[in-house]
Specification:
Number of helices of chain B: 16
Helix content of chain A: 25-40%
Strand order of the largest sheet of chain B: 4-3-7-6-5
Low-confidence stretches of chain B: 1-6
Low-confidence stretches of chain A: 1-23
Mean pLDDT of chain A: 83
CATH topology of chain A: Rossmann fold
Number of domains of chain A: 1
Helix content of chain B: 40-55%
Distance between the termini of chain A: 28 Å
Number of strands of chain B: 18
CATH superfamily of chain A: Response regulator
Number of domains of chain B: 4
Number of helices of chain A: 5
Mean pLDDT of chain B: 85
Radius of gyration of chain A: 14 Å
Number of strands of chain A: 6
Shape of chain A: globular
Order of helices and strands of chain A: EEHEHEHEHEH
Strand order of the largest sheet of chain A: 1-3-2-4-5-6
Structural class of chain B: alpha+beta
Largest sheet of chain A: 6 strands, mixed
CATH topology of the largest domain in chain B: Heat Shock Protein 90
CATH superfamily of the largest domain in chain B: Histidine kinase-like ATPase, C-terminal domain
Structural class of chain A: alpha/beta
Oligomer: heterodimer
Radius of gyration of chain B: 62 Å
Chain lengths: 155, 559
């Protein structure tokens, strides 16, 4: 493996990674996380699983909702970190679920630690799963793979 | 007696009365047991004369066949079958009268001794039903000592019997009356006891209400609990004890109607005494019914449970506080472990990545830097958590603190940053308060560093001070002691500010409004400020406008 072929910007914009184009519409996902390190770790793990997946990033819930104000933006799955400034992951989940056209998109919550109440709360609010951020990229790759296989209808 | 018309049947049979004379004359005596009248003995003639001439009721029974002679008075009394029976055999009377009388008559005939027979009732028109007669039967002896017949004199003893009966009745009535009096006294005694018991009970207000809820009686307990004397409360409606809002909501009416329908209504709530003070009353209203099951009123028993209520409320409050504290602690532990785990997890991950890229110098540099910064961050976090948990320790001594000295110390701590950023610090003269010096230093230091950190361009920090009363800030902080004077200290800056909607979140531990790569920090600083102000029984508030600046206001109690 070589150094990752992208640079991080303070403006959490859109990174289009399409190294292994399949010819079909590529799968798109959105990660909402304020932590730049975690964005990078997430990206590395996703690449390990499937390099053709398009990955969008939003620095927090407010930025994510701003992105969704564009009606054409429709990722296949969304990952939301719990602990974020301004709007936390739970509030962000609630806001996204209020948007009719996004209601069917599978959402996976992510956090460093796990609180059973939080898992129950987010599932009740419509989250499909909850991933505890592991201390290893390979484990995260496996967790992401499982989530996508189980929840995202492949195009 | 010396009647001219008297007929002399023989020398000894002399009858004065015409009718009786005719009776004797017409009767065919030859076929009777007595035989021809001319053959009658002197004793018989004498006796018949005596009988028929008497004015009081008398009768004569002659021979073993008891042939009857009676006079007018006797006939009138006993309604005999006249004139058939006159001179016929006694047995021909054939009535109850005969049944009662004949044994007595026969006894006289046999023994020659006078007897007394009583016939209590006698039915005859014009004679009262309840009559009593005594028959005194006396033997009439013939020559030679043989009993020839029986002379019966009738005495009425109705009055005697009646008065005896009356007496008996009076005696019975008296006895009954006595029992009644005794029972009444017993009842009165028990009622007295009951009334006294009710009156003397101090712990319960026991009240009798009419069917509309008006007060009919009042005991000492009611006076003690509700404060009204008996004279001022009788006749008033019981809703007088209820709070205005309960009255407006119809609670008293509702309780009465529930008692009417269900027989009983129970309620607990605040009630009002005469002096307007409140007590926590536990009440039971019970409907009273007449024999037709109509509700005629209610009893109302009230207990003053204020002390219990206060104790319960206090306990509930303590439990609630404990629960809140536990929750805070749990949250603190969760968030602390979360925030501590995060840099650790990154170190692990980056070490793993680095292992695979050890030959790439660029990657090596990058990931070692990342690992290093995560470790530093972890160290800072541990220090902050330690600071924060230390603040919560109680038992620290409050001493007199000159806040001017505290502020000066804080300014000198940040001298380097102030000169680097060319910051302007404007300050008022600050008062002296009672507080924990170390915590006050930390508070001022944190607020000052916050203003310097979230700055843009040249920082201008204004620290002003004024005095307010609790009354003036009670709208901001409902739990404030309105009588307490406070010093209001304002830290205002011209920095990046924040959106006012995050003003409440800003003091939450580990809550950040900016991502870490914009502004470094642990998310503990302002939570620590809040904790210090709480420890000093003060209040803290934040006001911000994005891009314009932030204002932190603290209120600390003055002596």
């Amino acid at each position: 493996m070589s150094v990752l072929p992208f640079k991080y910007s303070k403006i959490y914009g859109l990174f289009m990674i399409n190294l292994r184009s399949t010819g079909n519409e590529p799968l798109q996902c959105l990660l909402i996380d304020d932590d730049v390190d975690d964005q990078e770790i997430f990206f590395m793990a996703l690449q390990e699983y499937n390099a053709s997946i398009l990955c969008h990033f939003a620095g927090d819930g407010v930025i994510a909702l701003d992105k969704f104000s564009d009606n054409s933006f429709l990722p296949n799955c969304i990952f939301i970190d719990i602990n974020m400034p301004r709007m936390n992951g739970v509030e962000c989940l609630e806001e996204i679920k209020k948007i009719e056209r996004l209601r069917c998109i599978p959402i996976c919550m992510m956090s460093t630690s796990v609180d059973p109440n939080m898992v129950a709360q987010t599932k009740a609010l419509g989250a499909a799963d909850f991933i505890v951020k592991p201390p290893s990229i390979s484990i995260l790759t496996e967790l992401l793979r499982q989530f996508i296989v189980l929840n995202v209808p492949l195009a | 007696m010396n009647d001219d018309k008297a007929v002399r049947f023989s020398s000894s049979l002399v009858i004065l009365n015409q009718e009786a004379r005719d009776l004797i004359a017409r009767k065919n005596w030859k076929d009777s047991p007595l035989g021809d009248i001319k053959t009658w003995s002197g004793h018989l003639n004498f006796s018949v004369s005596l009988c028929l001439n008497a004015t009081q009721p008398v009768a004569l029974w002659w021979s073993s066949e008891l042939v009857i002679f009676y006079n007018e008075a006797f006939r009138d009394l006993f309604c005999v079958d006249h004139p058939r029976l006159f001179g016929s055999k006694g047995e021909q009377i054939g009535s109850k009268f005969w049944d009662v009388l004949s044994p007595s008559l026969k006894s006289v005939l046999k023994n020659g001794k006078a007897t007394v027979a009583q016939q209590i009732t006698h039915e005859n028109a014009g004679i009262p039903k309840e009559h009593s007669f005594v028959f005194h039967n006396t033997p009439v002896f013939e020559d030679g000592g043989k009993v020839g017949g029986v002379f019966t004199a009738v005495l009425e003893n109705t009055k005697a019997i009646f008065s005896q009966k009356m007496l008996q009745k009076i005696e019975e009535d008296e006895a009954r009356l006595k029992i009644l009096i005794e029972q009444n006294e017993e009842l009165k005694k028990s009622e007295d006891r009951y009334v006294r018991m009710t009156e003397e009970i101090l712990d319960y207000a026991i009240i009798l209400l009419d069917k509309d809820g008006s007060i009919l009686n009042w005991n000492r307990g009611a006076e003690k609990i509700k404060g009204y004397s008996e004279s001022e409360i009788i006749g008033k409606n019981f809703s007088i004890f209820y709070l205005d809002e309960d009255r407006q909501n119809g609670l008293p009416v509702e309780l009465i109607s529930r008692a009417k329908q269900e027989g009983r209504a129970m309620h607990e709530g605040w009630r009002k005494r005469k002096d307007g003070s409140k007590f926590w009353g536990s009440i039971v209203i019970t409907a009273l019914h007449d024999e037709k099951n109509n509700v005629i009123g209610f009893t109302k028993v009230t207990r003053d449970l204020t002390e219990r209520k206060i104790a319960e409320d206090k306990m509930r409050q303590h439990a609630l506080e404990l629960e809140v504290k536990n929750k805070q602690l749990e949250q603190f532990a969760y968030i602390a472990s979360h925030d501590l785990q995060e840099p650790l997890r990154k170190i692990q991950t980056f070490v793993q990545v680095l292992e695979m890229k050890l030959n790439d110098p660029e990657a090596r540099k990058k990931y070692f830097e990342r690992i290093n910064s995560s470790a530093k961050r972890m160290s800072a976090l541990i220090q902050s958590v330690l600071n924060y948990s230390r603040i919560s320790q109680h038992g620290e001594l409050f001493t007199t603190i000159d806040l001017n000295a505290i502020l000066e110390n804080a300014i000198s701590d940040y001298e380097l940053v102030i000169s680097e950023k060319d910051a302007i610090i404007q300050r008022d003269n600050l008062p002296t308060i009672k507080g924990i010096p170390l915590q006050m230093s930390q508070l001022f230091s944190n607020l000052l560093s916050n203003s310097l950190k979230f700055s843009k361009g040249q920082p201008v920090v204004k620290i002003s001070s004024s005095q307010v009363t609790g009354k003036e800030i009670v709208r901001l902080f409902p739990s404030v002691d309105t009588a307490q004077p406070y010093v209001k200290i304002v830290f205002a800056d011209n920095g990046i500010g924040f959106d006012q909607r995050y003003a409440d979140k800003i003091f939450t531990i580990f809550q950040r409004l900016h991502s870490r790569d914009e502004y470094a920090g642990t998310g503990i600083g302002l939570a620590l400020c809040k904790r210090i102000v709480d420890n000093h029984f003060g209040y803290i508030a934040a006001k911000g406008e994005a891009g314009k600046g932030s204002t932190f206001t603290i209120y600390l109690p003055l002596e």
